[in-house]
Design goal:
This protein is of the alpha/beta class. It folds into four domains: 127 residues, Alpha-D-Glucose-1,6-Bisphosphate, Chain A, domain 3; 101 residues, Alpha-D-Glucose-1,6-Bisphosphate, subunit A, domain 3 (Alpha-D-Glucose-1,6-Bisphosphate, Chain A, domain 3, 3-Layer(aba) Sandwich), CATH 3.40.120; 83 residues, Alpha-D-Glucose-1,6-Bisphosphate, Chain A, domain 3, CATH 3.40.120.10; 75 residues, Alpha-D-phosphohexomutase, C-terminal domain (TATA-Binding Protein, 2-Layer Sandwich). 38% of the residues lie in helices and 19% in strands. The strands form five sheets. It has a five-stranded mixed beta sheet, sandwiched between helices. The two termini are 34 Å apart.
């Protein structure tokens, strides 16, 4: 509630009637947080439009489309149902800067600084009944004209999450034969052995149904993974390469390349480099990718995990829009998905996670620092090491890549062994 109050005060600018839009995924706790946020907004005099379960990118889109002052998505993305979180969008539909988030946090910590509305100025709340339809049309219009998916059989896994209605609807309206899975949310099963972070079920269903393609979204549908007709996973790096090459040929790629994070495979970097393009890397997090894209004029970027950002079409990662761009490239290629989405041979890469109590202490341990230095020396110029803490879980992530897969495995295991037991 205090977050709603604080955000309302920060975005209460000008003399007009102020408005917030609030969306959520399918977690049981979403009802509770939605009501508390709404109470906070109303108490400061801001009206609220409740969207119900919708993807994160839909909230960004509707914040701008409805000329709202602030947008909120209640979701913990790909995490299990026990977790939940709050994502805030400014009136332009983009996620907030660190500076604005800090401003809101200061007010959350000092609620006495929030100016409550007079009784006659308390806000009103109502449901936006056509929110799903508005977003469905926006997604369809993001694809090339007359995109016709007739003749394609597509299995779509909605992770029992926010896109459980809109994703099958978009694909069906564009003509595909749709096999929906992960579309029976019960408040507890979001991301439960399904969706983009657990693609095993989708792989099985694509092969079983002899489908042309599988699409897996995560709980809030801002990321996507594909599965080819042979049941093989297509990650975000391959998707970025496929879309970048299609856009380059069509003259639509701006910025002279693609923005990705330090986690993206060296194979992607070599792929874009061979085409006279550049791969610009940022720290992990789609917000950092987007910041660099906006600063330097890129219109395509993303993460290996499947956050694909296309600023010509959306203000944040949009799994469904990215899937349509990939489908458009597939149809133009006249190849099966296994060939169309294999843009490059990835360099052997290994990522392992270690659960810790104090991530900062673990990263600063001399044993870990020494192990990382030794690993970098062993890999040499042809490889990379990345050791970082997770932004959402108490984990240390250890990643290495290089042309020698055995050496990659060796250096990752050595770093993990060096993490102090007391930190784990």
């Amino acid at each position: 509630m205090r977050i709603g109050m604080a955000a309302a005060q920060v975005f209460n600018r000008g003399g007009h009637r102020h408005r917030a839009v609030v969306g959520k995924d399918t977690r049981l706790s979403g009802y509770m947080i939605e009501q508390a946020l709404t109470a906070g907004f109303l108490s400061v005099g801001m009206d609220v439009l409740l969207l119900g379960p919708l993807p994160t990118p839909a909230v960004g889109f509707l914040t701008r489309s409805m000329r709202a002052d602030v947008g909120v998505m209640i979701s913990a993305s790909h995490n299990p149902y026990e977790d939940n979180g709050i994502k805030l969008f400014g009136p332009d539909g983009f996620k907030l800067s660190d500076a604005v988030e800090m401003q809101i946090e200061r007010l959350v910590e000092a609620p006495s600084m929030v100016r409550l509305a007079e009784s006659k100025a308390i806000g009103r709340a109502k449901r936006l009944d056509d929110a799903e339809g508005r977003y469905v049309e926006a997604v369809k219009s993001s694809a090339r004209r007359r995109l016709d998916l007739s003749g394609l059989k597509i299995v779509v896994d909605c992770a029992n999450g926010a896109a459980y209605k809109v994703a099958p609807t978009v694909l069906w309206e564009l003509g595909a034969e749709v096999v929906p899975i992960g579309v029976s949310p019960d408040g507890f099963n979001i991301n439960g052995n399904c969706g983009s972070t657990h693609p095993g079920l989708l792989k099985e269903q694509v092969v079983a149904h002899r489908a042309d393609l599988g699409i897996a979204l995560d709980g809030d549908a801002d990321r996507v993974a594909l599965v080819c007709e042979k049941g093989r996973l297509v990650d975000g790096d391959q998707l970025m390469a496929t879309i970048a090459e299609r856009w380059r040929r069509d003259g639509r790629l701006t910025g002279g390349g693609v923005v990705a994070t330090v986690m993206s495979n060296l194979g992607l970097e070599r792929f874009v480099g061979d085409r006279g393009l550049r791969l610009v890397r940022t720290q992990v997090g789609d917000r950092y990718v987007l910041e660099r894209m906006r600063a330097d004029g890129f219109n395509l970027g993303g993460e290996q995990s499947g956050h694909i950002i296309m600023t010509d079409h959306a203000t944040t990662g949009d799994g469904l829009m990215a899937a349509l761009q990939a489908l458009s490239a597939l149809l133009k290629s006249r190849k099966p998905a296994s060939e169309a989405f294999h843009a490059f041979d990835p360099v052997p890469q290994l990522l392992k996670n270690v659960r810790v109590g104090d991530a900062n202490a673990a990263l600063n341990a001399q044993s870990v620092i020494a192990a990382i230095a030794a690993a970098e020396k062993e890999l040499g110029a042809g490889g990379r090491i990345l050791v970082r803490k997770s932004g959402t879980e108490p984990l240390i992530r250890v990643m290495a890549e290089g042309d020698d897969s055995e050496l990659v495995r060796h250096v990752v295991d050595r770093i993990i062994e060096a993490i102090p037991r007391q930190a784990a």
